[in-house]
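Bug: token stream looks shifted between consecutive jobs. Job 1:
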Amino acid sequence: MPFAVGKKAYGICDICGQRYRLNQLRKQWDGLKVCPQDYSPKHPQLQPRPQPADPEALRDPRPDPRTGDQGFDKGIVRVLGTDLTATNDLIGRPFSLDGATTALGTVTITDNPLTATGQSATASLGTVSISGEITDSVTLTTQVGLSALGTVTVSTTSSVTSYTVTVAYGTNSYGSGNKYYLDGSVSPTINLSEGSTYRFDQSDSSNSGHPLRFSTTANGTHGGGSEYTTGVTTNGTPGSSGAYTQITVASGAPTLYYYCTNHSGMGGTANTP
């Protein structure tokens, strides 16, 4: 069948609906036949360039052992110092062993106070060995162990001499009344060696209201003296758990006297030969 051609052939614009000569209409990229005023080329963003595929990932990759909670087997880790918490890094201060996904080998920690914690171990925890002069506490905690927990060894060679302090009625050189009892003896004369540490444990409830301190004057502040503080540390409230007064005797320390800061005549003499 023949088609109309020539100047008498007309068409309708698919956009504006106006009649135009057929040879004036143009076919757009979307298939529409439109007049010159409505014609628009295809926008480039309607046909983005093809993107190449991402590079192939590494086969059988290995994590960087220096970051995060990666599992690693590092054999022996030694940490020397004070106030260390072993809770999961490589060698350093502090270090930790947290979230390990393989054997932890041997951990050796020296000094005090000490806390060694191994968490979320999914393989053997190896050996934990702690040694030294332990004056405070040692805490070993293993959480979520999914396999063998090796050997845990704690060796203490404490150089701290402890006296258990109680308060009761008694008689000493100052007279009768409430007195300090050291290991059951009323206000005894004790000998303290230079360089050694002595702890006077006041956890017993009878110590409530009777803080023990040191002075270079007999009967301390009640005898006109002042408190001696060289090498002395205290902890807690007398009469409560964990309360103590501790002294590390300095070189050349004078003869000392232990006394109660609140009440006269309760203490005795601490020689420092």
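Job 2, same session, no restart:
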Amino acid sequence: MRKDLFSALCSFIALFCGFSSIAQSHAVEFIANQQDTSTSELVYVSFTQSIYHTNSTIGSMPGFEALDDETKADLKSKYCLVLDYVSDSILLSTFKRAFISELQSYGFRVRECNSENFPTELKSNEHTINVAQLELEEFVTYDTLRSQGSQNPILFTKLLNGVRWNTWLRYNDSDSESKQIFFASEETTDEMFGYVERERGKYYADYDLVKINPNDAYLLSYSAANLCGRYFFNFLINRYVWIKTQGNPQKYYYIDEEKNLSIDNEAVDNFDIVEED
């Protein structure tokens, strides 16, 4: 990945060489720094040892706990397709390995330790990131098929099940000036393929449905870790440019899902910032 990142750097330089700015030169400098262990970012990482399980559908049903056991079982068989069938230890280990690997792929040096052992004084290229809370959430959503060739299409809407991986991360918790709480979410749902067609004056929906299953949770733990690693890179490169330009970066720099280094007028591919209570 270091080689890929260096290739992205070369493309980035070629793309903006005609109208380079001081901010862009700092973005290039940040990436170049990751090619040398003496200048690369050092990230101390800690991980929670548990995952919250939440079923938003069942949790929002009024009076669910008062229902008889048979009715509860029927509802769970319909709306609980993942949570009861996964191994938290596998989910946690998958997320941890993927997150560390993603950070290292950018050239960052990574040291795993308990958050209690994080250094309290950090150099400018040192950071702490505590993966403080993880949640696996089942939910429902809707998808709609539409008939074709009419100004007033006939709609067929179906309830779909979904599973979502939520991640909360605490950045530089010991530093009152830079500490922040990040949030990221990754999800997948049932997939519906089909069409609405008219036959003999009546409309009908013909569709196939691919249901979510426990394996989707394991895939999400991996993809969510990669997402968080990429978002953290995007945060750090823009933090570096912001500091170097004394708070006037003008542009936003980021690596997208395909590992392409890009520039935008607004922040994209980044964490949500959570206000601390």
